[in-house]
Amino acid sequence: MKVAIVGAGFTGLSVAYKLTKEKITVDIFEKEKSLGGLASSFSLPNWQNPLEKHYHHWFTNDSHALDLIKELGLEQDLIFPKTTTSIYYQGNSYPFNSPLDLLNFHPLKLSSRVRTGVILLYLKILPKVWAIELEKFTAYYWLEKWFGKQSFEILWQPLLLGKFGALASKINMAWFWARIKKRTMRLGYLHGGYQKLIDSMAHEINQNGGKFFLSTSFDSNHVSKYDKVIVTAPTDYFLNTFRNFPVEYKRRLSQIPHLHALNFVMITKKKFLDRVYWLNINENNFPFIGVIQQTNMIDCSSYGNQHITWVANYLPPNHPYLKMTPDMLYKTYLPFLKKINKDFDFQGSIINCYTFLGKFAQPVFPVHYSRVKPDFITPFDNVYLANMDMVYPWDRGTNYAIELGYEVAKMVTRES
C-alpha cells in the first residue's frame, strides 16, 4: 500500500511515523521548506538551539507527546521547570498559579474569590463524558452565571475577547472546560526545542522508508498515484485542493471559523519580564493577548545569552496587523509594552524583532460544535482528513496532533 500524507506538522509526522513502522510506503508533502507546521523553528547564528516561531510547551498530562518523547529516547532532554503565570490587570501583574494566588487576587472581592475557586475545582474534576454536554451553552452565559458577574468581567471575558474578538460570545463552554481541565502546575519543554523531537521523528520516518517532499504542494491530480491520501493541512486547504464536494458536506466544513496566529518575537539583551513566564493580558484595550518570556523557562545560554519574548495574538484573516512589518507591529505594540514594564530600556536592549504568521491556527468552536466537527472519512474514496478542527473539545496543541495522527494511522492500517 502506498500512502500520501499532506502536511508535515505533528499530525502528519505522527501518521508517517506510525505507518512507516508498519512497513507501509509513505510520501509526505509539505508546502513549506521545513517540517513542523505551527511548531516549526528558526535560529540565529549565535544560538545553540532553535526557537519555535509560535510559543509551545507541554502539560504534565500530555501523555501522547510525553510517551513519544520517551519512545524516541529523548526523555533526558525533557524538563518541567517551575514557572510563573500571571495576570495583567489595571496596571498590575498578579500571580495566578495556585488556590493561594486566587485567594490573594484582590481585584475580586473575597466572596467572588471563594466562589471562583469552588467552580474551578468543579470544572477540574468534571469528566469529559459529562463536560461535553456543556457545548450547548456559550462560555459567556455559563461563566457569568456560575462564576458571577465580577469574576466573569475581570478574569474570563477579557481572555475570551482578547483571543476571539468579535466571535468571543459564540465560544461554547465545553471548549472552555477543556482549558481548565488540561492545565497543570508545571509546563514542559525539551532542551534543544521542539525541533529536536521533529528531527527525531523525521529520522525514524526516513529510516523506515518514508520520503519527504518539501516546498511541494499536493493537488488532486496526485490522488490517483496513491492507495490512500491523508490530509492533515487546514480545512480551508482541503476545501480548495479537492473539488466536487457534496453541497452539504462543503457547507458544514465551510462554516467553521478560524483565526490566524500572529506572534511577535523580541530578541533583547535583558529580560522583558523579570520572573513571569506567561502573562495573560486582562485589559480589553490592549492590542495583544499575552506575553511569554521564553528565557524564564529556558536559560538564555541556549540563545547566545540573548533573551526571548513572544507577544501573542489571534486575529481574523482580514486584520490589518497581519500585513504589518515587524517594525510597524513593534511601534503599534510599544506603548502597551511600556505599560507592562515602564522601566525596560527598549532602545538600548532590543537586538531584533520578528513576526510569524500561522494561518488557520485557531478553530472557533460555537455551541453544538460536535454536529459540524469533521470526521476522518471524507466524501472521496480513500481520502481522509485529520486536522486541528477535530481535536475538540481540547484546544489545539502538539499532544492532540500526535493523538490524531495515531488514530487515523490505526484506521488506515486496519482498513489495509
Automatic annotation (TrEMBL):
InterPro entries tied to this protein: Amino_oxidase, FAD/NAD-bd_sf, Zeta_carotene_desat/Oxidored
GO molecular function: oxidoreductase activity
Domain Amine oxidase, first and last residues per copy: 10-410
Domain of life of the native organism: Bacteria
Entry protein name: Amine oxidase domain-containing protein
Species the sequence originates in: Candidatus Gottesmanbacteria bacterium CG_4_10_14_0_8_um_filter_37_24
